[in-house]
Amino acid sequence: MKILKFGGTSVGTVDSIRAVLDIVRKSQHAGDQPIVVLSAMGGVTNLLTQLAENAAEGRNFASGLQELEDRHFAVVKQLIAVKHQNPVFTRLKLYLNELEDLLQGIYNLRELSLQSKDLVLSYGERCSAFLISKIAAQYFPDALFVDATQLIQTDSHFGSAHVNQARSEQLIRTFAAAHAGKLLFVTGFIASNEKGRVTTLGRGGSDYTAAIIGAALNAEAIEIWTDVDGMLTADPRIVKKAFSLPVLSYTEAMELSYFGAKVIYPPTMIPAFLKKIPIIIRNTFNPDFGGTTIQHDSGRTALPIKGISSIADISVINLVGSGMVGRAGFSGRLFTLLAREQINVVLITQSSSEHSITFAVHPAEALRAKQLIEREFELELQANKLSQPEIEERLSVLAIVGENMKQTPGMSGKLFHALGRNGINVRAIAQGSSEYNISVIISQADLSKALNAVHDAFFAQLNKTLHVFSVGTGNIGSTLFKQIQEQYAFLLDNNDIEIKVVGISNSRKMLFSGEGIDLANWKTVLEQSGELADLPAFVARTKAMNLPNCVFIDNTASELPTLYYRELFQSNISVVTCNKIANSGRYSEYRDLKDTARKHGVDFFYETNVGAGLPIVRVLRDLMLSGDRIIRIEAILSGTISYIFNNFSGDVSFHDIVKNAQQLGYTEPDPRDDLKGTDFMRKMLILARDAGYALEPEDVQLGGILPEACLRATTVDDFYRELQAADDYFNELKSKAQRENRVLRYIGKLEAGRVSIALEFVDESHPFYALSGSDNIIAFTTERYKERPLVVKGPGAGAEVTAAGVFADLVNVGA
Ligand SMILES: NC(=O)c1ccc[n+]([C@@H]2O[C@H](COP(=O)([O-])OP(=O)(O)OC[C@H]3O[C@@H](n4cnc5c(N)ncnc54)[C@H](O)[C@@H]3O)[C@@H](O)[C@H]2O)c1
Ligand SMILES: N[C@@H](CCO)C(=O)O
Ligand code: NA
To answer: Of the four, 13, 35, 341, 581, which is 20 to 30 A from 384 by CA?
Structure first.
């Protein structure tokens, strides 16, 4: 035997009632012997409450009554064959007439007692259960309408009556035995006292009805049919990746519901809990889905926690007082007071010094709680043993819940890491002694970000979303977008990483979309609907959108974005950049950025600052981390100059090769940065710093490759003209090299903390002799790689390889 309970949304419309009957039919075919428990049609209980209040205030209630009639009659007309309609109309009309008389009485007296209100509300369940039993009777001849006032007996605590379990079980069993073989359609929510007056079971009442009947008849299961897929890991309106849990223990369901999961109201489960009857939450509108089973134990599952729940709006009261607060007597008095005054304390924490107690209450009760405390502890306040209670508002509670937490170390570490990494300040912490939940109080503004970040942290195997704000849409930036777009599905399917580009700016326009910008046509959208570019505003938006796992990418060659890195780190946003400016200015700046990123637990990745996509920064870092010592670094790190010397042969002029390098995307936006050696200098400086040397740019001995006139050119055009004019100079270099059987190489060296870069003529015996294209090469001679150096070699410039390096840094953020 199974109990099938359908809530208001399941019986709200003609279509949903059809779905309900389908479910009942299937259950009967499966041999479940179902008993159906029904709520009032969706919205009807609220309407009845409104009518009762209107009547008591002397306001009109006729139009509301008409609305009730219309809703029920419309269902009759659509779902009951014409020849069977009359008796149904008649009985509904009788109910509505009784209701009208009752409302008239309330109107005349201008008084609404809890008892009369229960009676008014009872018509919601009576009408719906009766009506649906009659619709069902067309297909199930054994369908029988049952008014639960005959089955469940309570005390006279109207509005939320206490059930006489023993008596009710007796009534239910007797009734069931007398009507064996019938298909019962029972009203939820309502009952009666020993005098036969109608009572109601309070919040979650129809679930309670189902649990009481299920327990009395030792049902196999109680199915609660609603409009969601079960209990979810988090509130799906905030956490888009929330998913339905297959199995939960009663305790877990209790903890999750306590903190706001509205699917069921836990006290209603107690009768089922005591008899170990599983409760299954299922979706009327998705009946093939298995839903969530709430059972005695937590089930075998790989999930360390079951869910994350929250209360969005909470106030906190702080009490501080030396030597008194925290003593057993004091907290006893405090919490007895609050309990007596029916102030629900959501969470309590006490500092280890025992001089303060913090507790959370619902905002509507905060002021009253404060006043009660002030009255109760008047003497202590006067004597300054206790300082004035303080209320803090606009806070939220977030709790992770799960029975398996107890056996799994590191759960709180994971929680605080996720919060800390995202810059979410924790105001107070409480771990239930049961260890079934860990709760934190945070600012309301952070709740959405916190829920998503914590959800990602605990259900990481189930997908991490990186939110990307990207500046610079030139050569590298646009190639990166193309690569992300091509790789999006693969990353999601194979690595559970989702990349959402949520902000884009170049020097003209900027664009934002919390849902993610479509990378198939970012260019058009940016041009057509973007706002005018404004970097401070872009950074402000990056911070204000307050998204978890947030990454700022700088694909410009401008100093401007680098001025914001620090501020971004302070807002717990990681930075990935191919722009070398930040790391190659003053040493103090470089140091400060690294320290700030580390302090805030975010990543600062710049692999492409040296050798584009080639693994160089990473290799050096690993050497340093593992305790190796750099003895010497020798390198060719200008892709542009490498390309130039590798192609400077035959008749082609130096000037033309530089132009080619620029067209191929090897040069800096301003090619003078490459040819003057500035770009190479920056790279050597960054390497030296990463190797532990606090060098300034002027410490690098930079030997040039250009004649004076070229260095003096004030514009790029002038520069190219001067290059052309210097043809003889470059040809002479070339001839000299050829005469000596050598090649031209622009080589950087780091040794004993000194960095130099110089043009060299090298012969065949030199390891840097054989290079082609835009190749870079770097040789690390270290304590451990002493005899033969560790060498990295390959293309060190170009849009594809550089964007790929930025991309790799991006997916490693937070890894
Ligand atoms: N080309 C390579 O092989 C290579 C290799 C490694 C690193 N890099 C670095 O990549 C970076 C970008 O190079 P590129 O060739 O793509 O340059 P680019 O000139 O093609 O693009 C630069 C982009 O930055 C934008 N921009 C400039 N200032 C801005 C600002 N203040 N706010 C917003 N946007 C701004 C421009 O509008 C443009 O979209 C440079 O820092 C370069 O050193 C390039
Ligand atoms: N302009 C740079 C790009 C790589 O950083 C080069 O030519 O090496
Ligand atoms: Na690199």
So the answer is: 341
Ligand 2 centroid–CA 639 distance in Å is: 5
Assigned fold of 307-450: VC0802-like (3.30.2130)
Is the whole-model pTM more than 0.80? no
* Type of residue at 515: E
- Position 462 scores a pLDDT of 54
Give me the mean pLDDT over the 491-517 stretch.
93
Asked whether 222 and 214 are in contact (CB, 8 A), the reply is yes
Which single residue is written with the structure tokens 């960095």?
755
**Which is the closest atom of ligand 2 to the Cα of 666?**
7
pLDDT at 463: 60
Residue 156 CA from chain centroid, whole number: 46
Task: Report CA(657)–ligand 2 centroid distance (Å).
Answer: 15
Which of the listed residues 470, 476, 607 should we mutate to test ligand 1's pocket, taking the one with most ligand atoms within 8 A of CB? 476
Q: Enumerate residues lining ligand 1, CB below 6 A.
A: 471-477, 505-507, 533, 535, 555-558, 560-561, 578-580, 608, 612, 639, 665-666, 668-669, 797-798, 802
Pocket test for ligand 1, best of 469, 475, 478 (most atoms within 8 A of CB): 475
pLDDT, mean of residues 35-41? 97
Q: pLDDT value at position 352?
A: 60
Q: Which ligand is nearest to the CA of 618?
A: 3
pLDDT at 788: 93
Over residues 710-739, the mean pLDDT reads 95
Q: Which residues of 788-815 are buried (b: 16+ CB within 10 A; e: fewer)?
A: ebeebbbbbbbbbbbbbbbbbbbbebbe
Q: Is 591 helix (H, G, I), strand (E, B) or coil?
A: helix
Superfamily of domain 464-604: NAD(P)-binding Rossmann-like Domain (3.40.50.720)
Distances in whole angstroms, Cα of residue 354 to Cα of each of 63, 316, 337, 376, 430: 60, 17, 20, 20, 15
Q: What tokens were used for 731?
A: 């040809």
Residue 278's pLDDT band (cuts 50, 70, 90)? very high
Mutate to test the pocket of ligand 1, among 553, 578, 637, 640 (most ligand atoms within 8 A of CB): 578
Domain ranges of the chain: 2-42+124-227, 307-450, 464-604, 617-797
Selected catalytic residue, list 683, 736, 749, 786 = 683
Give the residues across from 198 on adjacent strands. 192
What pLDDT shows up at residue 354? 63
Q: How far is the CA of 815 from the centre of ligand 1 (A)?
A: 26
d(CA 727, CA 372): 91
* Check: complex ipTM more than 0.95: yes
For 617-797, CATH number out of 3.30.360.10, 3.60.20.10, 3.90.550.10, 3.100.10.20 equals: 3.30.360.10
Cα–Cα distance, 396 to 311 (Å, whole number): 6
The arithmetic mean of pLDDT across residues 689-712, rounded, is 96
How far apart are the C-alpha atoms of 177 and 185, rounded to whole Å? 15
SS3 497: strand
Q: Which residues, judged by CB distance below 6 Å to any ligand atom, belong to the binding site of ligand 2?
A: 612, 638-640, 666-668, 674, 679, 796-797
Distance 34 CA to ligand 2 centre (A): 74
| pLDDT for the residue numbered 449 | 95
* Shortest-distance atom of ligand 2 to CA 638: 8
CA distance 499 to 468: 7
> How many whole angstroms from 668 Cα to the centroid of ligand 3?
16
CATH level 2 (architecture), domain 2-42+124-227: 3-Layer(aba) Sandwich (3.40)
Ligand 3 (ion): residues with CB under 5 Å are: 607, 610-611, 614, 616
Q: Which of 528, 518, 525, 526 is nearest to 484 (CA)?
A: 518
Mean pLDDT of the chain: 93
Look up 736 and say whether it is catalytic: no
Residue with tokens 């007596």: 340
pLDDT over threshold 60, residue 131: yes
